[in-house]
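Sample log: DUF4399 domain-containing protein.
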Amino acid sequence: MKRLPIALTLIALATALPSTAADKFADYKAMAKQQASNYAAEKLNLPTPAPAGARAYFPTLKDGDTVSSPVTVVFGVSNIGIAPAGTQVDGTGHHHLLIDDPTIDYTVPMPATDNVKHFGKGQTETVLALKPGKHTLQLVFGDWKHQAFNPSIQSDKITITVK
């Protein structure tokens, strides 16, 4: 009589194991597909689609403002989340600040220069030491690989005067 419960237990385990193995296989397959997709996106510079209605803006500065150096620049976005560079999560990205109108190729990752500042840790503000005079500022929101979204999520370009 003890053999029947053991046999039933073994049958139950035998039928449960294949589905668990199949689930793990499906998980591994999904991870491999995502890794291949990420690799292709990175190597081929494929742009990440922008979420509908996403926008970038300057919440505390406006075009024509006169400011003193150092200048605190606050970054704003709506309809999209903020995540560190290298973190691929749908609907997220990080800020890049263009200073004094640099030429940017939006089909490749943005370079890090004196005029293109990266905020890849997910920062939402910075302090800039700008020389007196007129300066342009523009935010461009980048994906996990520092590339602009398609279409680009960017603020209006503003001109400030540093006294």
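Observation: The mean pLDDT is 86.
Observation: Residues 55-162 form a domain with the Immunoglobulin-like fold (CATH 2.60.40).
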